[in-house]
Amino acid sequence: MKDEGELVKRIEEIKKQIDTIINDMSVPKNVRSAVIDAKNSLNAPGDYTIRVSNAIYNIDSISNDINLQPQARTVIWNILSQLESIKED
Prior knowledge:
Layout: H1 4-22, H2 29-43, H3 48-60, H4 70-88
């Protein structure tokens, strides 16, 4: 990662998107639970690559849930894409 300030800013933006999923009552509970776990991983202390990897693991596990609404699925995929781009940096 080039700049730690930029990293923090990107993670904060991802957490805002995660909050939209958490607060959407049309999203199944198992999906909200996995997204909450991902947010907790991002908030945990430690190396950002481990935190981001854990968040990716949590969100990837529910990204193809058949009960997920299309608009929520798009947000989930967007979050995954952003997390993966952070991990690659």
